[in-house]
Structures are given as C-alpha cells and as structure tokens.
Amino acid sequence: MNELYGAGVALVTPFHSDGTIDFGGLERLIEHQISGGMDYLVSLGTTGEVATLSESERKAVWAFTVEKVKGRIPLVAGIGGNNTAEIVHQLEQFDTTGYAAVLSVSPYYNKPTQEGIFQHYRAIAAASPLPVILYNVPGRTGSNVSPETTVRLAREVGNIVATKEASGSLEQFGKIMRDKPEDFLLISGDDGATLPMMAMGGVGVISVVGNAFPTQVATLAKMCLENNFEAARRLHSKLIRITELCFIEGNPAGVKAILHELGICGPTVRLPLVGVSAQLQEAIRSELETFAVV
C-alpha cells in the first residue's frame, strides 16, 4: 500500500450556513489539498462529521470527491461505526470506483472487549472489497484497540493493511512497531504525534491540520520519510500552536474556523457540534498573521 506513505488528510465536509453541504467549498478544499502536495485524501472520516450525514449525503460526497479528484491522488473512504452488521451492509453496497482503501474506526460507545473488537474487524475485512485501515482513537470511542489486538488483526486478517493510531501512547506505538508484520503500516492519527511516531517507524499521518496547511503537513511527513529529522523538528515546532488552536474547542470546529479565514469554506458545523468562540476566532486570526509558511 505505497499510496498510504506520507501525508493524508481527513477532509472536513463544508456546509452552507443553513447546514446543507457546500459542494463548491468541498471542491475548493480538494484543489487546495492537491496543489499543496497532499499525498492522499480521506473522505468522510470523523473530521468529515460523517455521524451527522444521511446515507444519501454520504454517497453524494464520496461520488463528488471521486469526480473532482480525477485520479490525481489516491482516495480512502471512511466507513465505520458501532453496528457491525450495518457497516458490513455499507461495505457490500459501497461503490469502490476511485477508492484505494477503507478507513474504519473502532466501535464507539458499546465498549467491546478486545475479542469483540477483533471479531468486529474480521467481519468488516471479510465484507470489504478494499484493503482496510484500522482506526484507534480511544479519546472518541471510549475503548482502546490494544497493541496485541492490532498485531493479531495484522497477522490473521489478510486485507487489514494498516492502522491509524491516535491513542497518544508512545509505549503502544512501540509495541505495534516491534511486533507487527513487516508490511503492516503504522500511521499517525494525531498531528502532534507525527514526528515521534515516524521516528519510531511510522509511514505518515492522516491529518486534520492538513485541511488548512497541506504543504506544511506533507513536507513534514516527507522530511521524516527521508530521515531528515533535524528539519522536521523545526517544522514540527512551527506547527505546534496552530495545531493546538485546531483542537482546543473541538474538531472540526477549529480547523473549519481556520479554513474560513483562508477563504476556502465556511465555519458551519452540524449539531451537536457548535462553532468556535469569538475569543478562539480572534486567536486564530492573530496566529495566521504570523504563521510561518514552508
């Protein structure tokens, strides 16, 4: 899966002020990513507010994204949830045209055991017509995919090819790197962890910050892949404050506020999310005035 090396971005779903999907904004965002050097795009991950989209809206976004990308860079589709049978059904109905892989978040809310997580992913992998990327984000799901479960899935389920790791645990990253099959890929799921994870052997990041700053995020990943960690550290340091502002009042409200300032799309999010405070918007505006560009 060479397509998964480097920087991917979990695209936001732009909305008009009335909450309907802003396809014009999505097209501008896609072009911003491609011209900025992003290696691949993830359509309808968590950052895309997929939990608030209807089935027809999801299909429309996936199809529109394929149409506008035109095969210029690889695409990954976010298809996950806490109802295994429903995810299997979605995968069986999914039009794979233009997509290279599926990113599937571990089950949230249910808090399954590790055996439950294993069986969930095994069922998904059996139904998926595309390679599957695990997504472990305990801060959102309420449960952790342990290193042992990740490695078991990597070894026993043929078309599970990578994991997007957002546990924040360097110990967990290290155990996965130590025990995984050689061709199984470790991808950072946290912008702030990209540098240390890639220093440990990870192959890249699926970024939120990259929505606004694709060139910087793609350059950081490239530097790490080239073992140019001295330059990567300097760029990582420049990204710390803007990354903090993206997440301080939740994702994707923060990065949408930045995209609004950049003129790419509006700041609207769907309930239960709300837009950022006036105080944070002003902090973002101030940071953008001095933000160092690669």
From TrEMBL:
* Site positions (Part of a proton relay during catalysis): T46, Y109
Q: In which pathway does it act?
A: Amino-acid biosynthesis; L-lysine biosynthesis via DAP pathway; (S)-tetrahydrodipicolinate from L-aspartate: step 3/4
Q: What is its main location?
A: cytoplasm
Pfam families found in the cross-reference section: DHDPS
The UniProt entry, under InterPro entries, shows: Aldolase_TIM (IPR013785), DapA (IPR005263), DapA-like (IPR002220)
Enzyme class, top EC level, equals: lyase
UniProt-annotated catalytic positions: Y135, K164
EC number per UniProt: 4.3.3.7
Per UniProt, the keywords (alphabetical) are:
Amino-acid biosynthesis, Cytoplasm, Diaminopimelate biosynthesis, Lyase, Lysine biosynthesis, Schiff base
Q: Quote the subcellular location field of this record.
A: Cytoplasm
* Binding residue positions for pyruvate: T47, I206
Q: Which reaction does it catalyse?
A: L-aspartate 4-semialdehyde + pyruvate = (2S,4S)-4-hydroxy-2,3,4,5-tetrahydrodipicolinate + H2O + H(+)
Q: Which family does it belong to?
A: Belongs to the DapA family.
- Subunit: Homotetramer; dimer of dimers.
The protein's role, per its UniProt record: Catalyzes the condensation of (S)-aspartate-beta-semialdehyde [(S)-ASA] and pyruvate to 4-hydroxy-tetrahydrodipicolinate (HTPA).
Name of the protein:
4-hydroxy-tetrahydrodipicolinate synthase
What is the species listed in this Swiss-Prot or TrEMBL entry? Parapedobacter defluvii
Cite the source lineage: Bacteria, Pseudomonadati, Bacteroidota, Sphingobacteriia, Sphingobacteriales
